[in-house]
Amino acid sequence: MSQVTLLPEVEAFLARQHGHFIDGQAVASSGARIAIVNPATGQTVASIASATQADIDAAIASSQRAFSGAWANTTPAQRGELLLRIADKLLEHTEELAQLETLQSGKLINISRAFEVGQAAAFLRHYAGAATRITGETINPSLPSFNGERYTAFTRREPLGVVAGIVPWNFSIMIAVWKFGSALATGCTSIIKPSEFTPLTLLRVAELAREAGLPDG
Question: How much is the pLDDT for 4?
Answer without folding.
Answer: 82
